[in-house]
Amino acid sequence: MKKRNQIFTTLFMGSIMTMTAQTPEMFTPHQHTDLRLPSVPLVVSDPYFSIWSPYDNLNEGSTRHWTDAEKPLEGILKVDGKSYRFLGVKNTVMETIVPMADEGAWKGAISRSIPADGWQNPDFDDSSWTVAEAAFGTPDLSFVRTPWSDQNSDLFVRRTVELTPADLEGDLFIIYSHDDVFNLYLNGTRIADTGETWREGVKLELTPEMKKLLHPGKNVIASHCHNTTGGAYTDFGLYRNVSFSEPSTVNAVQNDVDVMATSTYYNFTCGPVDLDLVFTAPMLIDDYDLLSSPINYISYQVKSNDGKEHDVQLLLTASPRIAQNLPSQATVSTFEEKDGVAYVKTGTIEQPILAKTGDHICIDWGYLYLPAINGEVTLNTNNKIKESFYANGTLPAPEKEMVAYKASDQPVLAYMHDFGKTAQASSYAMIGYDEIYDVEYFYNRYKGYWAHDGQVSILDMFKKLSGSYASIMKRCREFDKTIYDDTYAAGGKKYAELLAGSYRHVIAAHKLFEDKDGNLLFFSKENDSNGCINTVDLTYPEAPLFLCYNPELQKAMMTSILDYSKSGRWTKPFAAHDLGQYPRANGQVYGGDMPLEEAGNMLTLIAQVCMLDGNANYALPYWDILNTWADYLAENGQDPANQLCTDDFAGHWAHNANLSLKAIMGVAGFAKLAELKGDKATADKYMAKAADMAKIWEETAREGKGKELHYRLAFDRDNTWSQKYNMVWDKLWNTNLFPNNAMQTEINYYLTKQNEFGLPLDNRKDYTKSDWIMWTAAMAPNQKVLARFVDPLYKYANETPTRVPLSDWYDTVTSRKTGFMARSVIGGHWMPLFAYKLGMMPEK
């Protein structure tokens, strides 16, 4: 074994013991899977601490937040002096040649109308264009100096730059940020075409052919950005990578990736050694400390594939970028020791705790931690760390503190494990994030549940999870088996792989905490839609997962909405849409109400959790509120007015038949609650009302004959259809409200309307919602019919070119994302399993 600098070689107490508790089984998934997820969960905890790999191979590109912001992790295995990269890509250190707007205003010629052909060429006459300062875009975005935010508008930019021969040496990169469709040109030749997306800080390495487009003297970098809707943005610059030139590093050969509920398993070949790598978020649904834990495990095993011993070192690095919202934010990184524990941490200097709300933002408060568990840690520049590791298989001594005011000055947090000479060995690392305060709920700030109101620190949590590593990993494996085996029994292999691959996706879209009154609260973030917190029309579609495995968490999503009405802050005769914008839950911020939608959602779910409890105790403190909501549904739900509902992507229509279904089942839900309460008169009254409404619904919505018999999208719209997923409760509750076999009629009709990648939401567009497909599929009479809905959805997940955490809103013809990603509504995929658990999904 090589000697180590004892200053920074520190082990947690108990780590050595837990190392020996690892078994080869820990590195083998419960089942091997064939599903290629569009993005693979690596390190996930909540909407902010969320790192994914949107690639087929883990070493194909930089790891990213669900928003697509880079959150770089890097992993290298050194075997007998030769290095193999298995995680992420080479860390770059950028030297500015032509700066972006974060370093100061730069000027360009701009046009907002479509120019003449050749506008991107160096000799184009742009004298009639306006000269303006970058960046260009929506005024509230970073470094915007020239406003541009019109929907469905264009911005053309020409930037003339003077380059010297020295500027053209080395590895050159164009870095650009854009929103939405973006094309970039070097001296007239297009080098980037993004399609409709928005990304910040994209690093485009110039190929030798691209570099030849540049020359000493004047050059023109030109761009065209088209803003479809929402925010708009354009900024770009030219940089040189001055990071350490890595000697003969090759990519490890990835042999396999399997995603289970709590763990992602990778296997690589690194020359004569195989590497197993397991990312585990210990999100056990019945253990709130672990479910809310901001700490993940990274387990690793090396095994000779030629029967010989080899000298092996493993390096993991993390970037301060993980703790930034924007790359331009100044950071401070430190090496510290406490109670015999060495660790490195990083965060912004500003620390704007809970200051930012909204969508598409990353956390910029709190600190990322990488402790020395079973290995050693250091804080230093990327170049010094790589030089030491490649030359000697060691880490350099740590700097105590490193402050970076720009991205090119950022250090690297590094963890290394030296196995020495070995034929087979294993261990694990840990990575965590302390958000200081995680959420604000009616002007009180709270930490995550795991912290127990500040009594447990992040270092305490590291120690707890380190000491319990073997038992926690065993429990995670058992839970993975439960999820896979349950879903396999309910819907087969493809269904099981879909759900195993999306469990962490759903959980990590939430924050679990306890308020000052001791209420357990579980708030979702409306990722990639508007950033609302605890949105009721997310709580509804995602419910099946929690109804299957922990209804207390379902209550934890609803209690705050009920208390919002009970407190008098919300006074309308229906439920609120949301509680604010993540991470601040101080009252609804959504501009339009969804009266039938949210009242129906809440009543239906409260009825279901109380049925699972076998009593109405959860509902009793809110009885008058629920009664008011039920009356609103009964009075307004038969033939809905022109109200907003959750599926209004193609425009909202009055007389919406599926919205009416929701109202009818909400009324039936209140009847079920009254029955559980022991109030037969009220139960009979509201169930009779629901039955009357259902009879009228069936008569009014029916359209067509024979094989064309189905039920309309809207009562007054001929030749229309839509998914009637809200009818599923009539099956699950065995209420049989809808006559003439309406449910089976709809299922039969849907099977004639499917496209290659699934069932459209309705007849107006080819796009769909995957959660509603699975709610609809739960109405299937048996698993054979269920599979006809599951198979196209699986094909979408397996083949979509949109590499993001699974989008629930996608095109059933192209398989491309229409909108939304990383949303908790994927919990709706569990609805067929819930039907199965209730005995409502027979095999044949």
Describe the structure in your own words:
The protein is of the alpha+beta class and 844 residues long. The protein is 26% helix and 27% strand. The chain contains 20 helices and 39 strands. The strands form 9 sheets. It has a 9-stranded antiparallel β-sheet with strand order 18-19-20-21-29-25-24-23-27. A 6-stranded mixed β-sheet has the order 17-4-3-22-28-26. A hairpin with a 2-residue loop joins strand 3 (73-79) and strand 4. Helix 6 runs antiparallel to helix 7 (493-500), helix 12 (595-613) runs parallel beside helix 14 and helix 18 (770-777) runs antiparallel to helix 19. It starts with 14 loop residues before the first helix and ends in a 7-residue tail after the last helix. The relative contact order is 0.10.
Spatial shape: globular
Tally of DSSP β-strands: 39
For the residues shown, what is the average pLDDT? 94
**What is the count of helical runs?**
20
Roughly what fraction of the amino acids lie in strands? 25-35%
- In whole angstroms, how far apart are the ends? 62 Å
Helical amount: 25-40%
Class derived from helix and strand content:
alpha+beta
Q: Main beta sheet: strand number and arrangement? A: 9 strands, antiparallel
Cα-based radius of gyration, to the nearest Å: 28 Å
Unreliable residue stretches? 1-20
Topology:
Blueprint: H1 15-20, E1 40-44, E2 50-53, E3 73-79, E4 82-87, E5 94-98, E6 107-111, E7 130-133, E8 136-137, E9 146-147, E10 153-163, E11 171-179, E12 181-186, E13 189-193, E14 198-205, H2 208-211, E15 217-227, E16 233-241, E17 250-251, E18 253-259, E19 263-270, E20 273-280, H3 288-291, E21 295-304, E22 310-318, E23 331-338, E24 341-348, E25 367-371, E26 376-380, H4 382-392, E27 401-404, E28 412-422, E29 424-434, E30 439-441, E31 444-446, H5 458-467, H6 469-491, H7 493-500, H8 503-507, E32 510-514, E33 520-524, H9 536-539, H10 543-549, H11 551-566, E34 584-585, H12 595-613, H13 623-636, H14 657-677, H15 680-701, E35 702-703, E36 710-711, H16 728-732, H17 742-750, E37 767-769, H18 770-777, H19 783-799, E38 809-811, E39 817-819, H20 831-837
Parallel strand pairs: 4-17, 8-9, 30-34
Antiparallel strand pairs: 1-2, 3-4, 3-22, 5-16, 6-7, 6-10, 8-16, 10-15, 11-14, 11-16, 12-13, 12-15, 18-19, 19-20, 20-21, 21-29, 22-28, 23-24, 23-27, 24-25, 25-29, 26-28, 30-31, 32-33, 35-36, 37-38, 38-39
